[in-house]
Amino acid sequence: MRRLLIPLAAVLAMVLPPTSAAARPAPGAAADPDARPLDRTVWLCRPGLVDNPCGQDAEGMPQSAGPELVTRYPSGGTRLLDATRFAAGASGKREPFTVTEKPPVDCFYAYPTVDLLPNPLFQTGSRPPAPRDAHQAVTLMQSARFAGLCRMFVPVYRQVPLPALLAGIVVGSGAGLTTATMDIRDAWDDYWTHDNRDPETGERRGVVILGHSQGTAVAAALIRERVDEHPGVRRQLVAAVLLGGNIEVPEGRDAGGGSDPASTFQHIPVCRRPAGASLPTGCVVSYAAYSLPRGSLPAVIGRTASPGHRVVCVNPAALLRGEAAGARVPLDLYLPTRRLTGGNTPLQNGPLAVLLSGYPLPDLPTGFARHPGALTGECAHATDGTVSADWLQVGGDLSHFPASAPAGLTGLHVMDYNVAQGDLTALATAQTRAWLDSRTS
């Protein structure tokens, strides 16, 4: 029984908080009512930190000699972000991950639920959380390859851990995200005040906001409070990539328009690209990945019961290609390897062993296994009369995942970033170019 409960608990930990990302945390619903604002931001990654885990100096260039970015675990040990590329009919070829020019924009990333115990153990007062290997492992897995484009800012926050989530499920109270949201908001304020201005020009820098699962929920709350209602801040938003959580909009519209409480954002639109239009910026990319049989709806993420509303699905590969929103297109899959996550014989997936339970990560000397075109993706929509659902329907070679995962309770949730990681980073790169061009035109 325990072997069955651990994978289920891990799935719930990553899924349940953001299943209604539009919902605001209730006042006083903190994970611990005695928690207070941190005295200072605890950064996992911040450009210029001594031995920055993301490997960047103050300008976003590699701290180590040479163009390859060397990342570090808090407990020790380095990792590269290189990939082994597998193309049809060809053996694997190493692709180094290099940074040769200063990243022109910043990335602010809120990671998903990875704390299996509270961090700190007693979340009272201003006790700070500590960077852990699990935080770094999921950062490397999901967002670190954006480092060729961005200076990476990754705060450590007092997230709702697995036991609190399960307790909330049992008693029916849900998960209070007030403390987690407070920490992410305060980290953003620190970043915006001290780091967002370019050290050479003094001008504000563009920023890509990244989140997943619980990270999407708290990032969405941050955007509502600090970005959506502030035109000057919205102008600096290159894009928001908020995966694995429900971002909702009114049917037939791309934002709430200023007076729709059920819409996640009132002014920041969904990233849409009509035929012949240029690539949009300052918008939201969001989806939840499944591979469902025809006629099925997602069991958890992707569903809304809000009348007249839809959950956002943006296929980054289709958007980048200028294809129709519902077009089926190839995806650029990047699977993390055991090497990247610090896997070993007893724990093959390292500090993410519980969260990635059942996933057979490749055993390679590189950080990723790249399989361009092995998967396809298309945004799907269905309704059963009571709920509306939207998701990224993944097809193609599903042998890279556990047999039960694609159509299961949460689908490919833990791999939301990875199924289209090459497309996500290419899209963010193109949106950055478009954003920079708009600033000079």
Show the helix and strand layout.
Blueprint: H1 2-15, E1 43-45, E2 70-72, E3 78-80, E4 83-85, E5 93-95, E6 105-110, H2 133-142, E7 150-155, H3 162-171, H4 178-194, E8 207-212, H5 214-228, H6 231-234, E9 237-243, E10 248-250, E11 283-285, E12 289-290, E13 303-304, E14 309-311, H7 316-321, E15 329-336, H8 338-341, E16 368-383, E17 388-396, H9 421-440
Parallel strand pairs: 4-16, 6-7, 6-8, 8-9, 9-11, 12-17
Antiparallel strand pairs: 1-7, 2-3, 4-5, 10-14, 13-17, 15-16, 16-17
Helix pairs in contact: 4-5
Annotation keywords:
seven-stranded mixed sheet, six-stranded mixed sheet, disordered N terminus, 9 helices, 441 residues, alpha/beta
Report on the architecture of this protein:
Helix 4 (178-194) packs across helix 5 (214-228). The chain has 441 residues and is an alpha/beta fold. It has helices at residues 2-15, 133-142, 162-171, 178-194, 214-228, 231-234, 316-321, 338-341, 421-440; strands spanning 43-45, 70-72, 78-80, 83-85, 93-95, 105-110, 150-155, 207-212, 237-243, 248-250, 283-285, 289-290, 303-304, 309-311, 329-336, 368-383, 388-396. It starts with a helix and ends with a helix.
